[in-house]
Design brief:
This protein is α/β, with parallel strands linked by helices and 369 residues long. It contains 14 helices and 13 strands. The two termini are 16 Å apart.
Length: 369
Amino acid sequence: MKADLYIGLMSGTSLDSIDAVAARFTPEFELIGHCSCELPEALRDSILQLTQPGDNEIDQLGELDLALGREFAAAANQLIRQLDLNTDQVAAIGSHGQTIRHRPAQQFTLQIGDPNSIAELTGITTIADFRRRDMAAGGQGAPLVPAFHEALFRSAHRNRYIVNIGGMANVTRLPADRSQPVWGYDTGPGNVLLDSWIQRQQGLGYDHNGQWASQGKPHQPLLTQLLALPYFQQPPPKSTGREQFNQAWLDQHLAGLDAAVVAVDVQATLLELTAHSISDQIRLQPDWQHSEVYLCGGGAHNAVLRQRIQQLLTPAKVTTTEALGLAPDWVEAAAFAWLAYRTQTRKPGSLASVTGAQGDRILGAIYPA
């Protein structure tokens, strides 16, 4: 039986679920199937706690690394059952893991989700720890998905921008001119602050379709303060995470205002922050008005956010990656299936033009079945 399928596992900054996809990449990309497995609430809360500095971190990390590895394995096994696959058909699993720290200035990044457990519980070779090889070569270790965006979405006729809106947001520029390099970087917060604020105020995991934000009015002084963060003006390569964009950072800015802001207006302001920090970066490019912009990630389903990005980028066309043949929910998991494929076939998975590394590198550590 030919082992030509790859499974990709992704749990992003939003920590809402584990996405799993099965795909093949030869002779061309084909999405075989997918599933999404909700993370247990207690595990999610523990991971959120670990993403911020605290006490007894090493013991917490060890416990969560193992627990999350088992959840990743369960997601892979669920997908295999759902598709009625034999494990002999799967060449490898690519697992991103859950980022606990990302500090590119210190050349340090850490993802948990024990790949030994994934390999053991699935019986399938597992590839993980994709980011640190790029960092060892002087890169940011992120974002890694632009290389996959290039492989799947680049056009010979139109310049394209692929915008992933997960917990954080990142943009990839795919020039039609093949002599021009692909570039990409994290633009700032995607859903992370929106989710955190509505969780605090209403006990909800996310703002469905941006409905709550749409009921508020952006608070311009707060938005101006938030956009003044030097990160937004910092030239690429650059990447970021919860270390910068978190509830404590927002609270500091709220406390510095002359008067309290109504909670719903804070949500509207945070939606503006995400929309502007994405759109401002695209508008820096001379070709942006004649380009195509495709959104993916959970934020692509936020109708109000999507509409606001379209308003800020008119006359450019803004839609989702569904129009390119891959639904927004599965792009990142598919990217890590592709990265596993690249590693197993001894091909680079990173783009130095994106991360700032000394060169493209073969990524990941291999944990044999």
